[in-house]
Structure formats: structure tokens, C-alpha cells
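Let's do one together. I've listed all components of the complex below, 692 residues spread over two lines.
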Amino acid sequence: MKIAVDAMGGDNAPKEIILGVEQARDLYPELEFLLYGDETQLKSFLTDSNHIKVIPTTEMIEMGEEPVRAIRSKKDSSIVRAANAVKDGEADAFFSAGNTGAVLAAGLFIVGRIKGIDRPGLTSILPAAHPDTDKQKFVYLDTGANAESKEKNLVQYAYLGKFYAQKVLGIENPTIALLNNGEEADKGDRLHKAVWQLLDDADDLNFVGNVESSAMLMGKADVVVTDGWTGNAALKATEGTAKTMLALIKDGIMNGGLRAKLGYLLLKPVFSTVGKGMATSTHGGAVLLGLKAPVVKTHGSSNAEAVKNTIGQIKAMIESQVISQAVEYFNNQEVLEKMDKSNEND
Amino acid sequence: MKIAVDAMGGDNAPKEIILGVEQARDLYPELEFLLYGDETQLKSFLTDSNHIKVIPTTEMIEMGEEPVRAIRSKKDSSIVRAANAVKDGEADAFFSAGNTGAVLAAGLFIVGRIKGIDRPGLTSILPAAHPDTDKQKFVYLDTGANAESKEKNLVQYAYLGKFYAQKVLGIENPTIALLNNGEEADKGDRLHKAVWQLLDDADDLNFVGNVESSAMLMGKADVVVTDGWTGNAALKATEGTAKTMLALIKDGIMNGGLRAKLGYLLLKPVFSTVGKGMATSTHGGAVLLGLKAPVVKTHGSSNAEAVKNTIGQIKAMIESQVISQAVEYFNNQEVLEKMDKSNEND
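Okay, and this is what the predicted structure of the assembly comes out as:
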């Protein structure tokens, strides 16, 4: 198993990327790595090149660059070269902590879509954090690869999410819910009403109905399907609220004198559990599901630990053959016709 | 000033509604109330009928009923009768804690829209909770009156929100932001890109650009404009995350033994501050802005305190003449033409 790594992407690149890759290499002897980036920098951080090959690149795509233009013009950037390695069969997967738009564009235009998938969905594994649920996590897509979606895109996400939950998370018959503005079957705009019906009609999906964004973290389903616009707004609101509450608590403790500081010391284990429960990074990076190979993007602020965890996730994806399952499912005339029918109203 | 009250709506009706009305009456001697509902029940809870007139109704709209059908068929329900009182000029405002859809429908079809406003927006006053901001609250609309919106709807919300922030919150030149999936000017789907341009072009709006749902609570602007679909998803995700985090902390304390319980006692003032900071109920109910009179809906679980606060908010709306300002602004050929132009691309 060979993973192509964009070693230049992210706030802490290349140091933390290389550290994380070395940790993953020590943990998983079956993995090999192709490390794309500035040769001098990469070699200065690399302590042991066993199973790691450095491939020099001369260009870099910055965080603010227009993605499609960047991947078209910077052919010798670490992102484009790493994606090409997957396209050419030299690597099985592509990892980056860099410019999200450029990773999406490289995935779409270089690695390529699975036949039958119109648009890949950016997939996160989120914590089912509420203490009242038995679940620990759920698959959530699209978190924002596409600002505008059609019915068939969401139906395809349901299958992609199902395969991921089955193969990578090991859930035999995953439940699937649709993010909507109400729980009842007749809720939503035209798009979501139509998608509800299509998911409910699908015999091979364990569809359990709508879920509201207020109940997302309650573990209503193993897979939550959403259009990228709504999915992005709900996920960012969740992250922003968690941060604001932690900031409020911290502010209260800092300004609460000795009493509050003592209380904090006593409650430290509780805060640590809450922090872990809400953390998304422990569950790996965001997967661009619907491409011909695993393409995974971690947060720009990722440290070596997060890089190592994400590589573990990529390894699980390769081993589970989740992508082959999706390829096989969609490479079927009947399925393609079903998907086309699901957009007749557009 | 006379307020028409649906005394039968909400989980704690009519008791808490009547208690709240009596508290508001004692606080604001200039207010008079028309209380619509079951005569026997209302009279059994009313302790002092000074400035309060009970008007018997024989029908009730339940929480699950289809709104438009309900207000058309139940002519003698408390919601329909109270809305009619406003339409007929017998009352200046309409208050309810009942079926949200039915209140929206009664507002739209009985009280009626301001000329020039295509769709009213459901407006909440949310806490600018993050400790790093100087603001205390912001106006947020549409929270979900409309699942599908056009460009001119969002532009109209910007003006309605501006007038509310000026007149009711007393902010002279309120800043206005657009909820979007990125901060940069070119972010968003077709709708949000077009709205960004229209808001930026408007000389009489203090537009400060996009805000992401992750930064909503950071007090970026006095007014956050959103389509009802996204606004609903982001608001519910915020509420759900706050609840989940509080549940996680509570669970940790309950299962953390004596140490955690002691820590909780010491940090109680901090938790109380956080709870107040995040609470939306202290800022009153949701206003259906864009109607010819104040129509305000509080949460179904409202107690007397919340009812009293919301009546204070309604009083401020009546006194400030915020509605007249909107009527005046939109009753202008130039403005109407500008709004029509803003939908040329549809």
C-alpha cells in the first residue's frame, strides 16, 4: 500500500506532516510513502527514510489561491504531483493538509470520479457526542464540496456513506438519515422532499427519515446525508458554538478568582472528556468520497498526531476496499438508470 | 396600546400565559390586553382583570395541525380571533406561544404584509455570546419562515433588520452581514453571490460582508441576514450543540464522584454566566418582520417570565414605530423598482 503525501500543505508543514508520516510508518510496516515537496526542507526534517521516498517538487499552491487555476498552472506543485501519482497507479491514495479547494480540484480533475457519481461529497466522521446515545460517531456528507446540489447527488451520497459506514466503520446495516428542517416526512424545500421520497423508496438503504441539525449530535443515524450548502452551515455552526462555549467557560474561570480556578482543577477530567467528545480531529480527516481512490484532507492546523490518525484512516479505507465497492455498485446499468430517473424533475 | 393575546397556545397555556400577561400589566400600566381563549379556563387563572379583557373562543389549533388549513377552518380559534383583532384595528399587536406555522399563516393571511415586502422573515434576537466581542446581541433573520428564498427577499430582510436594530435596539447605524459559506466576496451559491452584490451596492445599508455560521456568535454585525433554509439549519445546530455540551458536562459531573460535584459547586457562577450568555429566551420571542403590525411568537415551552419579557419587546416595537418606518420606506416607487430589479436574474 502506497500513499502519496503533499508534504507542503498546512500551517505546520512540512515538519508536522513528516513527523506524522514517520509515526504512521513505524506503526504500519505494510505502508509506503511518496513524499512530495521541497527537497531541501523535506530532507532536513526526515529522520529515517525507510519506506519513505522523497520526490522533489518546485512549486507550491498557497492557501488563498483560486483552486482550479492553481492546479492547472502549477503542474510541479506537491498537490498536483501527488494527485498524478494516484492517477498513474503509482500510489493508492492521496493525503493533504493544504488548500481545500485545490485538493478538491485535484481530486476531481486528476484522480477522477467513479463512473456513475456526478459529484463527490466531502465526508467527515463526526462524534455522536450527546451522552444519551449509544453510538460513538456517524458519517456526515457533503460538508461542503458542492454549494449547489441535485436530487441524485444526495442519493449518491447515501450509498457512498453507507459503503463507508459498512466497510470502514464495520457497521453491518447502517441507518441513514436526511438532514432537513423538520422531522416529518413532508418537511423541507422541493429538493429535500424529493430526496426523502427517493431514499424511502430505495430497498437497499436502511433509511430512518429526517434529522434536524439540532439533533445531529444525538446519534440518530450512522450516516447523515446533506447537500453541501446546508451541511457546511450546520457543521460550522456546531464548531462555532462549541468554541464559543469553551471560550465563555474559560473566560469565566480566568475572571472568577481563586474559587473558579479551584473548581476548574476539580472538573478538569470532566472538561477533558467533553473536549474529547466534541473533537472531530480524533476521527481523522475529510474524505472526498466518490473519487476513484481515497483522497483525504486534514485540517490545515493538523499536528503529527492528527496526520498519523488520518493515515490510519486511509489505510483502513484501502484495506476495506470501500472504493471498489462503490465502483462496482455504480458500474451497473440498472443503478445508473435509477439515478438518472431520480433527476427527472430538474 | 392594546395587545391581542392567544391565551391557548403553548405547552403551559393558559396558566403561564395569563400569569405573564398579569406581570406585564403590573409593569406597564399603559398596556391593555385582549385575551382570546376558553372562557372558563381563562377566568379560573385570571386573578385581576384590570386592563385585561377576556374574549371567549370555542376552537383551538393544535401543535401538529396543517397551518393554512387550520386558520381557514377554525375561524373561532384563539389564533385566528387574535389576528383578526389586529387586522380590524382593535389591537396593535398579536402575541402567541402556539403552533408556529399557524401563527405565520395568521400573520400572513390575516394581519397582512407591508406593501413592497414579498415575504416576512422570522426574526430572532441572538446573543453575541463569545467573550471576545463588545456586542451583546444581534438581529438574525430569516430563521425559517421561508424554506425557499429569492434575492429580493434577502435584501428586504436587510432593511427590516436594520430598522429593528435602529428603532428597537437603539443602534444608530447598524452593521449588516450576510450569512454565507465563506468570508470572501466571491463565496456562496448563485443566490448568495447575487445578494452580496446587492447589499454592497445599497448606499443606505452599512454592509460589512459575509459571516460564516462558525463566527455568528462572535458579534461580527448587528444584523445577520440569511435565507430561511440556511438560517434555520445554522440556528438549530447552534442550539443543539449548546444543549449537547451542557448535557456532556452534566453527565461528567453526575458520574465524576465527589470531586466533580465539589468542582461544580465552585464553578456554579461560571456555568450560570455561560447559560445566560447562550440563552436566547431572555431576548424575547421571534418577530414576524414584514407584517403590518408586530406579530410575535415565543417558544412553546415559555413560562410567565418569558411571556412577560416578550410583551416588553412588543411594547418596545409599538413605541418605536419600527413597523411604520418599514411601511414608509417600502411605500416608495423608487424602492419598489429597486427591489424588482434585484430579481431580474430569477
